[in-house]
Amino acid sequence: MTPVNPPPLGGTSAPAPASPGARPVAALPEGVRVRVLRLVHGDPRAAVEAAGRLTERQAAGLDPLPVEPVDLAPRRLSAHRREVRELPDATRLVLLLAAADQYPVATHAFQRAVAAVRLDLRPLEEAEAAGVAYATACGVGFRDAWTRIAAYETASPADRRDVHRLLARVLHGPAETPRRAWHRGAGALGPSGRLAAELAAAAAAARAAGDPAFARALAERAAALCPDPRARLLLLAGAAADAWRAGETDRSRTLAAHADADAVTGVLALRTGSAGEAFDALLAGAARAAAPRTARADRAGPAPAGSAAHLLARAAEAAVYTGDLRRCREAVQAARQCGIDPPGVLGGLAAAVDGRYEDARDLLEATAGRCGPGGDPTDLLHAGIAALLLGDHTRAATAVVRTAAAARARGVTVLASQALEFRAYADFWTGRPHAAEAAALDALHQAYATGQDNGACHLQAALAMFAALTGDGTLCRERAAAARSHALAHGLGLPAALAQWALAFLDLGNGRYADAAARLRALAAAGPGHGHRAVRHLATPHYVEAAARTGDTRVASAAHADYDRWARVVGSPDDLALSARCRALLTPGPDALAHYATALALHADGDRVFERARTELLFGSALRRLRRRKEARDRLHSALQAFESFGAPHCAEGARAELRALGAPAGPTRADVRPTTRATSRLTAQQLLIARMAADGATNREIAARLALSPRTIDHHLRGVFTRLGIRSRIDLVRLLADGDGP
């Protein structure tokens, strides 16, 4: 929209690239592509033009995209303008009144304005005949958004001011005050302190009513009319915060840059840029918000995003995303200097980093308890994060679902998708991977549409974990690579660590234990921005399993000791169960069985059903090696059924392999659909299983790891296979099993 007054940012026209139109939309990064389509109202032709006009930095997502139609797709807008100009003057007047009532703020005053001046609507028939607009029960409907914009911008500034003044006159009553203020501001001839104050009050009312998009428009208009430079900066900062809440990230970034608003810049950096820089900016914003007003009179003032406590809560999130949890101490100290209690997640993480696990538990428990319905979205989100850290996935899921609901009710679009990032953890472990994957994919699109590239990175890492669970190696590696690339460039330790864990989990499920252990050791050594202490802690049971399979248990024993200490302090049944499972893996011989039994008893009171299935698989494998066949068969069948219900085929294949090693029926697999030949019928069940693994390319050591046997035993079995089949090499074995025929 072309403002009635000069734009508050001194013009928004973006320089066109050297070769407009040369960059295809499909070549843009996914986040930029989704935002371009959103800004052009889904018009494919406008998207092509807009993509060609982006600078290199805009196309890479480094600079905010242009947000005004004339900057996005001037040729597309020009074509619509020509259509409107060809209509009679009377028709254009009706369209202008309708457009001003709808764009960029819907005020629903068209019919009252028509009645007030007894405007003849018969000229609208010309627009209908031209296919430009049509009559509706509520007034006028436009063919598309670009036609509505063209109908407004084709008119002269004087005509636009006149229709805005008319619309303002017919809006009455307290409920319509903000919309009346909007039209009064749009009809102004020039700067006016009185109108700026009226618009600022209207913006505050819209903000309180949960309409941040309208609040942004009002605050930005107020800034355009404000004659006081300092007050203007405050209004721009407020508009930037409102734009962020509404999901208008590109506009928010531009406004924040002109407002010099540290706090808003920090929130933006948290979701779009460097999490480390976000932390610093948020701490600075919190200090300014807590300072006496006289001490900050020469600055833009605190961001309307919230109080010092709110900004410190965001700083806690920045510390979580970076993985630099030692920064939590810095934030706790800053909170005390501001004279406020530090957010519970912040204090809990700081205590955990210092090894004060009892204090950490108490602080996190207090935060997790604040997850009642209808609360503040930020408080609810922190309750969900705290519950996750405590291992209470049911309460975490409740908190983040309520976060999303509260955020949507208040119009805070950005928080809704952020909540789903953390819901993924709870859904994954509690046996709802497919529902979680669908929710994460939806949240991924929301994150891209609202410019939250850091949130999209976190969701990509979560989706990599879902792919690892289902055994889709190609998709897991693709999503993990995308997540790690963005995470390492932006200092996001949380998604970087989660992506690394997903790759290790994929290795673990496919029997590549040495690879899994190596990845998890690297994760443990990774510093802030590359790894994450909380993820390293959560992955400890998988690391212990991989290390135990490879015989390298020294470091794993130390990792388990720390994990066990936290589990005992927190008292989470699932954490205690996994600690008992780790102890079983680190205990040789029959003594391990008691620890497995303890783990299963504890799992019965928890909610991590997938990990219970893995415990049963490991328990069954241990029982098989000790020749306790009936007990092993029962455990392995239970694990197999659980893995199949989760849609985890490679984990189910591991259970089947154990059952076949027992000589027990395990149901069909992909390998089982091959015809059994005269030659292979001479093999025992275990020999046939080993033969198929070898034919699929597994080394003796890998087969041994999968079956919990020694490489020497596998070598012995393979020599027996070759003798019985009358062949001399693995090549002959591959050919025989592939052909489905024997000698």
Can you offer a commentary on this structure?
- It contains 41 helices and two strands.
- The protein is mainly alpha-helical.
- It has a two-stranded antiparallel ribbon.
- 69% of the residues lie in helices and 1% in strands.
Q: Please list the strands of the largest sheet in the order they lie side by side.
A: 1-2
Question: What portion of the residues fall into strands of 2 or more residues?
Answer: under 5%
Output the CATH homologous superfamily of the domain at 670-739: Winged helix-like DNA-binding domain superfamily/Winged helix DNA-binding domain
Instruction: Report the biggest beta sheet as strand number plus sense, adding barrel if it closes.
Output: 2 strands, antiparallel
The CATH first-level class of the domain at 670-739 comes to: Mainly Alpha
> Helix amount, in percent?
55-70%
pLDDT averaged residue by residue: 85
Low-confidence stretches: 1-21, 293-306, 669-677
Determine the N-to-C terminus distance.
Answer: 80 Å
Oligomer: single chain
The CATH topology of the domain at 670-739, please? Arc Repressor Mutant, subunit A
Number of strands: 2
Gyration radius, rounded: 31 Å
- What would CATH call the architecture of the domain at 670-739? Orthogonal Bundle
The global form is elongated
Q: What structural category arises from helix and sheet content? A: mainly alpha
